[in-house]
Amino acid sequence: MDAVENISAAVVIDQKRLGGNPRSTVGTVTDINPLLRLLFSRAGDRAGLPPSAFSLNDPQGMCPTCDGLGATVRLGLDAFLDPIR
Predict the structure, then answer these.
(1) Longest pairwise C-alpha distance within the chain
(2) HSE (CB half, 13 Å, CA atoms) of 54?
(3) What's the CA gap between 37 and 53, in Å, rounded?
(4) What does the pLDDT look like over 25-34, one tens digit per residue?
C-alpha cells in the first residue's frame, strides 16, 4: 500500500474504554474496520480470502486461542492442589 487518502492524520483517543464496550478498538470507533478488511482481502498474497476473514467477530477471522476476546484465562492447578496432601 502506498497511501491512504481522506483520513485524518491523527486520531486522539483518551485511555478510557472506547464506546463503553470492552471489545471496542480504534477501528470500530472510527468505522474504518470494514475498509481495512476489504483492503486486506484484496491486497494480500493469499487469494480468495473474503473481507470477513479479517474480522475479529467472524469465526474465520478470530483468534482460535482466545475466540476473538484478546485474552485467555488459564487455570493454574498449583493454586488449587496441595502437593503435600
Answers:
(1) 66
(2) 19
(3) 8
(4) 778 878 888 9
Tell if the pTM clears 0.70, that is, is over it. no
Kindly give, in sequence order, each residue whose CB lies less than 8 Å from that of residue 54, ignoring residues fewer than 6 positions away.
36, 37, 40, 41, 61
Distances (CA, A) of 81 to 7, 74, 75: 54, 15, 11
Cα 5 to Cα 25: distance, rounded to the nearest angstrom:
21
For residue 37, count other CB atoms closer than 10 A to its CB.
21
Q: How many CB atoms lie within 10 A of CB 54?
A: 19
> Which residues fall within 8 angstroms of residue 56, CB to CB, at 6 or more apart?
23, 62, 63, 68
What's the angle, vertex CA 13, arms to CA 11 and CA 15, rounded to 5?
155
